[in-house]
User: Fold this.
Amino acid sequence: MTTVSFDRHPDSYRHWRLRIEPPLAWLEMDVDEQGGLVPGYELKLNSYDLGVDIELYDAVQRLRFEHPEVRAVILTSAKDKVFCAGANIRMLAGSPHEWKVNFCKFTNETRNGIEDATENSGQIYLAAVNGSCAGGGYEIALACEKILLVDDNSSTVALPEVPLLGVLPGTGGLTRVTDKRRVRKDRADVFVTRPDGVKGRTAVDWRLVDELVPRQEFRAVVEQRARELAARSNRPENAQGIVLEPLQRTEDDDRIAYPNTTAELDRAAGVVTITVRGPRADGWLLAMTRELDDLILRLRTNEPELGTWVFRTEGDPDAVLAAEREVLTGSDWLSNEVLHYYKRTLKRLDVTSRSLIALIEPGGCFAGVLLELALACDRQYMLDGPPIDDEDSDERAAIVLSDANFGAFPMGNGLSRLESRFYGEHDHLDWLKRERDRRLSAGEAVELGLVTEAPDDIDWEDEIRIVLEGRAALSPDALTGMEANHRFVGPETIETKIFGRLTAWQNWIFTRPNASGPEGALRRYGTGQKASFDRKRV
Amino acid sequence: MPTRIDYDAKIPNNVELSDNRRLQRALEGWQPKFMHWWAEMGPALETQGVYLRTAVSVGRDGWAHFDHVVPQDYRWGIFLSERDPDRRIAFGEHRGEPAWQQVPGEYRADLQRLIVIQGDTEPASVEQQKLLGLTAPSLYDLRNLFQVNVEEGRHLWAMVYLLHAYFGKEGREEAEALLHRNSGSPDTPRILGAFNEETADWLAFYMFTYFTDRDGKYQLGTLKESAFDPLSRTCEFMLKEEAHHMFVGTTGVDRVVTRSAELIREHDTMDIAAHGGIPLDIIQRYLNFHYTVSLDLFGSETSTNAANYYTAGLKGRWMETRRKDDHQLTEDAALLEKPQDDGTWTAEEMQKILLLNLDLRGEYIADCSSGVKRWNKILADAGIDFRFRLPHPGFNRKVGINSGHHITPDGTIVDEATWERSRKHWLPTDEDLAFVRSLMHPVYERGKIASWVAPPRQGINGKPFDYEYVYL
Assistant:
């Protein structure tokens, strides 16, 4: 498998056109049939693969950072009579399981990002469905605040995965139909089992779309509705965007390095050690977040066998706290964007199917925003003693709680990582709040329940080695399931249902012969042959 | 790896402890706890010096040094056999790979458990034998008891070394727990049943060192094959020490049988109780008891745990490297004799890898028979018709496939009532135990010995029997 890069720029998009007409932006899908990321399929009818979605992700990000003047985004198709046919079936049928799952995870994160822009950036998305809209296509529309459907008596919205492919609309489709658009469950059942979908008046009555627009007036009404949405936006007037410059990344076989983040890849052990450095220049939080985001995506996509990620930090905790204070107390649009971007990046970690382990050592800076990284991990180990290579040193590991840890970066379940860690323990959370803004020693961190273990310098190396080796010996599947269960306590949200319920069911269905077997629906689709099902209900 | 032992160190060792700050600190923290345990749970009899051997080197020749030592001043230490830098794993899925010098994280829990179980038996026997010194039949025997005790203490050190050196904080906690469990304690007993039985008299002591310590020999033999090299080397040296315990058991029973035979001849009766000897049928019942509780230590005949340990390379077979097979055992089959409710025996064919405990038990039983042969030769030479025999392995079992059944010493499956009616013929009765205990009077005079046991043919380290082995 070729290495997938997530570097994109609107100047060289193959599948999208981004047009800025303040306060609006037009994001038009125009998929290049021959532009698949991997050979073996054609991206017909605006169907998409990971490459198409990487460009979409890039566009959504750039709109937030580079175009504060944009208040509403019209997501539509540049093709005639077709909005989007969803994820490419040949691509899905021909992909190995982990590729399908990783693809779905990324597309889900991008759809969530669209909703996040609407909710938290005042950049409101409107789906202008100008032609047939099926499966993943309708799921893109569902991520938008409003859906306008062209009333041409033939264009439909549809979720045909179940009847045609024997899988689920897994990019949030099932969840958003009922939870976001409040479609009644019996109508949802009818809708999702119809291969041809629903059009016209019924689509509006069932709340599958918000409005029908006659073909002739389509563009004008879309623009009108977008302007109405833009008027609701709280984006600032006359703000100047910033340019997201290309990442400075160097790579070789066992190392990926950026100015603020380095990953060491140990293939024999199946471990990646990710070191995040504290601030040394202005704009650190955004720069570090971009690097971390890129690193997570690359490792997830390109290194599926490196099952354990170890997080370390290097730098001055005070500098981290100073940098975060600037952003947390800044009331400007850019500070807001940086915070939400870091939030989304942490959420990526939360749903990453890797064992995450934080090593808190002297010289590190797990403070405030960076402490969130440690809290996102499955386990935290803190060295209680001098640095391993300098036993005469007085330096000791410390962590610092700050305001950043009490709600600034909610997880998908709507709770902070501390609230998730101490679910329902209000007194304990109050205690933690009182311990803000000072360095906590290993002993205190243990007492406060912020670390798993605090081995001393004598035990440190052996303990960590054994933890990592032990982890590597366990079933990756069981670990993925176990970690996903432990990470999300408490309430369900649309997000947790998408990643925890919809995705888990989808991933199970993907591995079943009824979908992926030689006679399964996914493999037989488009061959003219009917799928043959194992009829046992499981 | 130097074979010379550093006796200048606070803890004698041949593992370059002084170079390992972490380990030294951990073990020096444990040492006073061990000394406290020894004072509380060690031999009740106080002495001014015991003629003990101490390891000075782990090489083939001249590893032992003999001198009078006050037991609590004994230099317990850490001795591993020499390292073979080219050693490779002999069995299981890692066969052919270099032996491990570190605990692989994958096997940490299993290895720790194996070491804890082995470690738990070592101090247990010291506790079981605590009171024996008060009734020793001679200074020679008293000396042997102390030798066994200090070496069991050393074996505890050996296991604690592994826990401290390779298992971090959890290992240290387990090492402490080894001192907190006590033989026969109602709250915190020793892990294995046989180590909670009382060793109430010297015949029991000889039987214990013959049968139960022999189980230890075979368990150590399987751990000696371990892919985890420090465990292997530790057990290899422990096996050398263990040989003395076997010797105490074998010659101890020899001498009891010899004395009983003398008394039978002298008084021309099998009923020698009145003449201060132990009747042969009581010896047989002691043998039955100690042999069968020791068989329980081998665990269930079929064991997936043992199979997993084997596949992983943690625990091998007795003399693994001399066996001529594929050392994987997944293809080979063996037969397991099973008792049935209708009173018959059936043989079931099973994968060899599932019968590793049975395999080890088979080796052990063969070894035990040689002792029985020795003792019967003594009787034959004396012209006495009585013969000792090992009971059927199904007899009196609490562990494994036989445990739910009532099986006689000759292997007949009977009902519970029948079995219970004959119990007094097969296992020591309260009267037997009381009688043997009545013979247990200490004899601390040089060159003298109790009525029920013959003197040894040779003394220790070339010294005569009447040497002052213990200063009282």
Observations:
- The longest helix of chain A spans residues 97-120.
- The first strand of chain A starts at residue 16 and ends at 21.
- Chain A has a mean pLDDT of 96.
- The CA atoms of residues 384 and 443 of chain A lie 7 Å apart.
